[in-house]
Amino acid sequence: MYRPQFAYPLPPAPCDDQACIFSFDATNLPVFTGTLAAGAQTGRVPLKLDKDADFYLRAIRSQGGISFRLEDTDGNPLSDSENANNPTNYQLPNQYSNTAGAGLVALESGAGGVFGPAGGNYVVYLYNATAAPIVLTTCALNLAGVKRYSEEVCRQ
Amino acid sequence: MKLEYLKQAEAVLNKCGRPQLPGGISAVPITKGFMLPMLLQPGGAVTFTKEITGGNPWLLRAISSDEPSSSLVGIRCQIQLPNGRFLFGGNGIDIGQFAWIGSWRWLQDPELRCEPGSRLQVTLTDTTSGGLSAATAVNLLFEGAYLFFMRGGEVSTDFPLASSLPRYQGIVNENILAPCWMSNEGLETPVGFVDEYFPYSTPEPTDQPLQTTWTVVAGAVTVAPNPLPLEIQVGPGFELFVRRMLFDVQFTSTAKAIVLGKLRTGAGYVVNDNFIDLARYLCGAEYPCSWKVKGGDSVFIDVNLADVTGSGTVTFQAHLEGFRRRRA
Q1: Most buried among A102, A118, B60, B104, using CB within 10 Å?
Q2: Kind of pairing between the strands at B213-217 and B312-327
Q3: A19 CB within 8 Å of a chain B CB
Q4: Is the omega angle on the peptide bond into residue B37 within 30 degrees of 0, that is, cis?
Q5: CB pair distance less than 8 Å for B89 and A147
Q6: Per the omega criterion (within 30 degrees of 0), is the bond before B229 cis?
Q7: CB contact at 8 A, A58 and A111
Q8: Domain map of chain A by residue range?
Q9: How many C-beta atoms lie closer than 10 Å to residue B87's C-beta?
Q10: Sheet strands side by side (includes B106-114)
Q11: Minimum-distance CB partner of A7 among B81, B107, B162
Q12: Helical H runs in B214-271?
């Protein structure tokens, strides 16, 4: 039987999933209001999640030429992180999240996505892999996935 | 809506297999979209509302936007769904980052059931510094389907959800582009014979530089490999079945070139009758059917350099990967 890629399991009863995007840009993340020099990188930048439900990250899309590296809410890197050659540690948007196709890069995971508890923080590190400064107001990072509402949340 | 059409649609969907409610009740989805045209004045923050009209529940399946999804236009968008929840976390999303049309539309997965009379609310906020230069139109198309519930139709058979299946089941060839032999299907080894994985190769450039290396000076070949053509001998007692070919072209210093080649066997079989860029066109692709080379025969590879530039060396090695068959 043909099993399409990126089919995610149903949430365990009585939870229900709802599609959701967390979008970060200069309007809600101060680091995006500045400029990042050529070859420079930022420290850890927390990406705050909503408190109403757990979130499962399933896809990433970015805007602008900035490279980034994500960590989940437990501090686990979602890509290489300790290579001496910095570009190896960061995803280059032109090769990954700035897709010219359907717009999102889907992650497949048996858990239904990269888990982030309600109110948790993903962490992002930005890196300018180019030879010119990048004005970060032109950049955005979108985390797409589902919020998993549990029965307790639904009662509220 | 004609009842007969709904019955026909239900019959078709039941044949496909789908979940049914107790009592044999099933739902027929009929496509329906809601357009929400909006206009945002400079400095504005406005909430627009769209009611789910009609007498049936409606499924939200996708959202299209007239703003391309690869820009930052300074209009913040937040969508409150009929169940009261928000589509975007935090303070919403720039409308230029959300969605566009066609393949760029937002896929609402899982789909969201909206009851008749409930409302979709879209809030647009001007977040540009100094305000938008002019009133800006934003149009969203909420795509989905009305649910028409039917009772008493043909009962559909159980059908597992795709998400409940393992990614790789290992029972059949699941990659429709892969050759059948990759999943151990197809022609079997004849009785009395044994197949062994085996790559045959031309001389290795480090050990045999004279047989594999061109020397290039100022865009001209001064020394060519010797002897040419390259030859791969298949030992007597074996038959070679080539499943793919690999070509390794290496350059040193500033030398650049294309290695053109022709492949043939001593028995007269010709793989390609004119010179082609071997590495570009033949390298690595697995063949649906193996190329059989008889025992005691040889594969000859006529090679030439083209588009030669710079100075340095060009080395070439070919590998015929597959299996060889011998008597048990």
Answers
A1: B60
A2: antiparallel
A3: yes
A4: no
A5: yes
A6: yes
A7: no
A8: 16-150
A9: 24
A10: B25-40, B136-151, B58-65, B106-114
A11: B162
A12: none
Judge residue B251's burial from the number of C-beta atoms within 10 Å of its C-beta, 0-12 exposed, 13-18 middle, 19 or more buried: middle
> How many angstroms from the chain centroid is the CA of residue A112?
15
Q: How far is B79 from chain A (nearest CA, A)?
A: 10
Residue B72 is nearest to which of A2, A4, A140, comparing CB atoms?
A: A140
Query: Is A109 touching B (CB cutoff 8 A)?
Result: no
Instruction: Write out the two tokens for B85.
Output: 């929840």
Kindly tell me if the per-residue pLDDT of B80 is higher than 60: yes
Q: Which residue has the tokens 């510094």?
A: B129
Q: Which two tokens stand for residue B288?
A: 């649906």
Contact flag A23-B81 (C-beta cutoff 8 Å): no
Residue whose C-alpha is closest to residue B140's, from B174, B182, B185, B108: B108
Cis-peptide, bond into residue B160, ω within 30° of zero:
no
Instruction: Compute the distance between CA of residue A50 and CA of residue A61 in angstroms, rounded to an integer.
Output: 19
For B139-194, the pLDDT digits (tens) are 999 999 999 988 776 665 666 666 677 766 666 666 777 787 777 777 789 999 99
* CA angle in degrees (0–180, nearest 5) for B91-B97-B102: 130
CATH annotation of A16-150: 2.60.120
- Judged by a CB distance cut-off of 8 A, whether residue B85 touches chain A is yes
d(CA A117, CA A88): 28
Give me B78's structure tokens: 């937040």
Question: Using an 8 Å Cβ cutoff, are A67 and A59 in contact?
Answer: no
Using the Cβ of A7 and the Cβ atoms of chain B, whether some distance falls under 8 Å is answered with: yes
Give the single-character DSSP code of A85: S
ipTM tops 0.90: no
Residue B72 CA to residue A33 CA, distance in Å, equals 13
Task: From residue A147, give the alpha-carbon distance in Å to each of B120, B177, B210, B216.
Answer: 18, 35, 64, 62
CA distance B294 to B296: 6
Q: Say if residue B299 is exposed, middle or buried (CB neighbours under 10 Å; 0-12, 13-18, 19+).
A: buried
DSSP, res A121: E
Picking from B222, B96, B10, B262, the residue whose alpha carbon sits closest to that of residue A139 is B96
The helix or strand, by DSSP H or E, that contains position B300, with its residue range, turns out to be strand B298-309
Torsion of CA A43, A49, A55, A57, to 10 degrees: -30
Whether A1 and B165 lie within 8 Å, measured CB to CB: yes
Distance CA A75, CA A122 (A): 8
B116: pLDDT strictly greater than 50: yes
pLDDT digits (tens, 9 = 90+) for A68-125: 999 999 999 888 888 888 878 887 776 667 765 455 666 666 678 889 999 999 999 9
Q: 């014979």: which residue's tokens?
A: B193
B188: amino acid identity, one letter:
E
